[in-house]
Design a protein that fits this description.
alpha/beta; Rossmann fold; 5-stranded parallel beta sheet; 10 helices; 9 strands; binds phosphoric acid mono(formamide)ester
Length: about 300
């Protein structure tokens, strides 16, 4: 019997996992595509969302309920005693008495790690500032496998906000294990931060830093599009300068052919022309829906039920 890679662990950063562990987690996901086994009956998930979310919060909620468990939590820090000055540490120490596992989303980088230090129950990072979004990465990898049949040796172009986009940071970190070749397309002010570039250099991952969609070769397997993360900009003028930097449409993606996979973690603003929803490669709604299956697998594994 294979070892459960998540038993008794937190899910904070893709840096904490090895390639074999990622493969083992993805192998479990298929089991949850149709199953409604009540593996977590009697267990409680706390969804602690200090920042807005649609997909991550609702899909964790749906995942826990599909597994027969219950959920508690909040979607707005202002409705909690944080607004009276309570610390994150105390909030987590209190919440641990009400649940068996918790998901935290917070605007501060490192907040999920801090939460994991504060509590004995498993903590899953639902996004900490611009840093990491590991569960998005797992659902992205699951969708990539579904769409392309593999997660190894893919040619992927990331387009948009590579500085603040946490989904990009997490996914790039894991693709470096799977022999990907990357095109990093952004305005100079939104380039991938140096520590993630250092990861790519250390792992020998081939990557190309460019500024135009035109510089992406026709033969890429995947275009991973991102929103310019308005909420992370300290300077509104700087945001205005880059907000419309990239917009993909049926004309400028035509040269990639019908087999290219088009991904976006959502929410999107104006970076994708609505006509691309009917492109055969458009995967954004699959990504969002696969979030439930992948999060079912994560919850069941973390709690030792799978
Ligand atoms: N992709 C993603 O994390 O979406 P939400 O912000 O809606 O959770």
């Amino acid at each position: 019997m294979k070892k459960n890679p998540l038993l008794g662990r937190d899910v904070i950063s893709m840096r904490d996992f090895e390639a074999a562990e990622i493969r083992a987690i993805l192998e479990q996901c298929g089991r949850f595509a149709k199953s409604r086994e009540p593996l977590l009956q009697g267990k409680v998930l706390a969804n602690l969302f200090f920042e807005p979310s649609t997909r991550t919060r609702l899909s964790f909620d749906a995942a826990m309920k599909r597994l027969g468990g219950a959920t508690i939590g909040f979607a707005d820090a202002l409705s909690t005693s944080i607004s009276k000055g309570e610390s994150l540490w105390d909030t987590i120490r209190v919440a641990e008495g009400y649940c068996d596992i918790m998901v935290i989303r917070h605007p501060a980088e490192g907040s999920a790690r801090l939460a994991a230090e504060a509590t004995r129950v498993p903590v899953i990072n639902g996004g900490d500032g611009s840093n990491q979004h590991p569960t998005q990465t797992l659902l992205d990898l699951y969708t990539l496998k579904q769409r392309t049949g593999r997660i190894e040796e893919l040619k992927i172009a990331f387009v948009g906000d590579l500085k603040y986009g946490r989904t990009v940071h997490s996914l790039i970190r894991s693709l470096s294990w799977f022999k990907a070749e990357l095109w990093l397309v952004s305005p100079p002010s939104l380039r991938l931060p140096e520590d993630f570039l250092e990861d790519l250099r250390e792992s020998g991952t081939r990557h190309h830093i460019v500024e135009e969609i035109a510089a992406i070769p026709d033969a890429v397997d995947v275009l991973y599009l991102t929103r310019i993360q308005k909420e992370r900009f300290a300077d509104a003028i700087e945001y205005e300068r880059v907000r419309n930097a990239y917009q993909v449409n049926p004309t400028n993606v035509a040269r990639f052919g019908p087999k290219v996979t088009l991904m976006h973690p959502l929410p999107r603003v104006n970076e994708i022309h609505a006509a691309l929803d009917s492109h055969p490669g458009a995967a954004w709604f699959d990504q969002a829906h696969n979030g439930v299956i992948v999060r079912q697998a994560l919850l069941a594994l973390c709690l030792g039920a799978a």
